[in-house]
Design brief:
alpha+beta; single chain; about 45% helix
Length: about 220
C-alpha cells in the first residue's frame, strides 16, 4: 500500500509521476501535458480534492452533532446512544453520491462495521504517533481498473463524545446499563477529551467524483 502523508503544504505528487516518463520532453511540453490530463480529469489536483474531502467531513460532523445534541436535549445520553447508531449510517449514506463515500473507522469499535482492517490500522497508527502524527493522509489505489482517491483524517474526542464514550465511572449509570444491553462486546469507552478516537475515510472514484469534488471545493458551508 502506497501512502502519502502530507503536512502543511500539499504536494502535487502526480507531477513527479508524469515527469518520470517524459525525459526527452522539455519543461514547457511536460507542463502542457500535465495541465491537459488534469483538465480531462485523468489526473486530479490534490489540493482541490483535499479541500473537497474536508468539506464533506465537516458537513458529516455538523449533521451528526446536531442529531446528538437534539437527542440529549430530549432524553439525555441514553437517547443519544440509539440516535448515534441510527443517524451516523444514515448520514454516511446521504454522503454516498456521485462517486463519493465516507466512513468513520476505529480500532475500538462499538459497531463492528466501523472496525479498521489491517491496512487501515496502519494509517490509524500514524495518527496515534505522539509528536509526529500527520494532520491527514492521502493515497491513490487502482482497484479493478478503477482509480480511487482516499483521504484519512483523525477523529478526537470532545465533551459531547464523552457522554457515551468516556470512562464508565464518569458516565451516568443508566447510560452504562444501556450500552451493556445493546453492545455487550462494546470496546468504545474509556476515552478522555482530546484522545484519538478513530478516523474518517473518504473514498472518491476518479474521474467519476470530479464534478462533486469541484463543487465541494468551490462551496462554503
Amino acid at each position: 500500500m502506497k501512502k502519502i502523508s502530507l503536512y502543511p503544504v500539499i504536494i502535487l505528487f502526480w507531477t513527479a509521476f508524469l515527469f518520470s516518463g517524459c525525459g526527452t520532453k522539455d519543461k514547457s511540453d511536460r507542463d502542457k501535458e500535465i495541465e491537459q490530463k488534469r483538465e480531462s480529469g485523468e489526473y486530479a489536483d490534490a489540493t482541490m480534492l483535499k479541500k473537497a474531502a474536508d468539506k464533506e467531513i465537516e458537513s458529516f460532523m455538523l449533521s451528526l452533532k446536531y442529531s446528538l445534541n437534539e437527542a440529549i436535549r430530549e432524553g439525555g445520553p441514553v437517547r443519544a446512544i440509539g440516535v448515534c447508531s441510527e443517524a451516523a449510517p444514515e448520514i454516511a449514506m446521504a454522503h454516498a453520491r456521485e462517486g463519493w463515500q465516507i466512513w468513520r473507522l476505529t480500532d475500538r469499535s462499538r459497531n463492528p462495521n466501523n472496525q479498521v482492517n489491517d491496512l487501515q490500522h496502519d494509517i490509524l497508527y500514524e495518527f496515534a504517533e505522539a509528536g509526529s502524527a500527520p494532520p491527514f493522509v492521502i493515497e491513490w489505489k487502482e482497484e479493478m481498473g478503477q482509480r480511487k482517491f482516499y483521504y484519512y483524517k483523525p477523529i478526537y474526542t470532545d465533551k459531547l463524545c464523552l457522554n457515551c464514550h468516556g470512562v464508565k465511572e464518569s458516565m451516568k449509570p443508566e447510560t452504562v446499563a444501556k450500552l451493556m444491553e445493546l453492545y455487550p462486546d462494546d470496546q468504545a469507552t474509556g476515552y478522555y477529551a482530546g484522545e484519538l478516537r478513530g478516523m474518517f475515510m473518504v473514498e472518491v472514484d476518479w474521474p467519476k467524483g470530479k464534478v462533486l469534488a469541484e463543487k465541494l471545493a468551490g462551496d462554503s458551508l
